[in-house]
Amino acid sequence: MNLDIIKKLKRTELFCDIEEKDIEKYFTGIKYEIKKYSQDENIAFRGDEVKGLYINLEGKAATEMLKESGEVKRIEEIESFSLLATAFIFGDKNRFPVDLNATTPTSVFYIEKNELIQLLKKDDRLLKKFLDGISCKAQFLSNHLWNNFTNKTIGEKFSQYILENQKNGFFQMKISVKDLAEYFDVSRPSLSRVIKNFLEENILEKIEKGRYKIIDMDRLRAQ
C-alpha cells in the first residue's frame, strides 16, 4: 500500500486514531481495490448488492432518488474521506437503498466484506469506530424521519437543523436551499421565506453566501 493511500485513509473516521505504520501493517494480506469514477458517473444503483466497504478517498458524491414524476431528489452530499453505506454491508437486505453518483471525479477505496471482517479483527479501535459510525448513521436517519413526519413547522425544522450543525455560534449551510427544502419535504419558496424572517427578526445575521452568525440563540431554541 502506497503512502498516499495510507495518508488518505488516516483522514477517515475509521482510521483517524490509527498510526500510519499500523495502517500499513494491518493491510498486510488484505485485498482491496481503488475504483475511479468520472463526474456524473454512477457508482452504484438502487438495489445493487453492497458487497463490502466503500470509502470516498477523493472527490464528492451524492445519494439520489428518482421520484415517480421523474424528478431526481438529492438525499445527501458525500465529501472526501467518508465511509459509504456502512449500515448495508451486513444483514439480509444488504443492497443500496438509493442511487450513488459521483458529482466530481472521485476515487473510491473498496474492501470486500470478508476482507473487512479480517481487518476489523486486527484492532479493537477499528471495530469500535466502525460500529460507532453505523450507530450515528442510524440516529441521523431517525432524526430525518422525525423531522419529516411530525407536525413541526418549517421554522422549527430549520431551527433544529441550525442547532445541530452550528459551531461556536456560526452556521454553514453545506447544501443548497433547494436541497434543504427537499430534505425537509417543503417547497423552496416556503423555506426561503423562513430564512428571510430569521434575518429580519435578527435571529441570524448573514456573513457571506451560505454562512450565518447566530444573533439570538434563545429565540432560535424557542422556535
Q: N-to-C SSE series?
A: HHEEEEEEEEHHHEHHEEH
- What share of the residues does DSSP label as strand, in percent? 15-25%
Number of strands: 11
Helix content: 25-40%
| Major pleated sheet | 4 strands, antiparallel
**Shape summary:** globular
| Order of neighbouring strands in the sheet with most strands | 1-8-3-6
Compute the separation of the termini in Å: 51 Å
Number of helices: 8
Q: Give the domain tally.
A: 2
Domain Cyclic nucleotide-binding: 14-137
Keywords: DNA-binding, Transcription, Transcription regulation
InterPro entries: cNMP-bd_dom, cNMP-bd_dom_sf, HTH_CRP, RmlC-like_jellyroll, WH_DNA-bd_sf
GO molecular function: DNA binding
SSE order and pairing:
Elements: H1 3-10, H2 20-26, E1 33-37, E2 42-44, E3 52-58, E4 61-66, E5 72-78, E6 82-84, E7 99-102, E8 106-112, H3 113-120, H4 124-149, H5 154-165, E9 170-172, H6 177-184, H7 188-200, E10 204-208, E11 211-214, H8 217-221
Antiparallel strand pairs: 1-8, 2-7, 3-6, 3-8, 4-5, 4-7, 9-11, 10-11
Keywords: DNA-binding, Transcription, Transcription regulation
Pfam families: cNMP_binding (PF00027), HTH_Crp_2 (PF13545)
InterPro entries: cNMP-bd_dom, cNMP-bd_dom_sf, HTH_CRP, RmlC-like_jellyroll, WH_DNA-bd_sf
Explain how this protein is built.
This is Cyclic nucleotide-binding domain-containing protein. Keywords: DNA-binding, Transcription, Transcription regulation. InterPro entries: cNMP-bd_dom, cNMP-bd_dom_sf, HTH_CRP, RmlC-like_jellyroll, WH_DNA-bd_sf. Pfam families: cNMP_binding, HTH_Crp_2. GO terms for molecular function: DNA binding. There is one protein chain. The chain contains 8 helices and 11 strands. The chain has 2 domains: 3-128; 152-222. The chain has 223 residues and is α+β, with helices and mostly antiparallel strands. The strands form 3 sheets. The protein has a 4-stranded antiparallel beta sheet with strand order 1-8-3-6. It has a 4-stranded antiparallel beta sheet with strand order 2-7-4-5. Strand 4 (61-66) and strand 5 form a beta hairpin. Helix 6 (177-184) packs across helix 7. The protein is globular, with a radius of gyration of 20 Å.
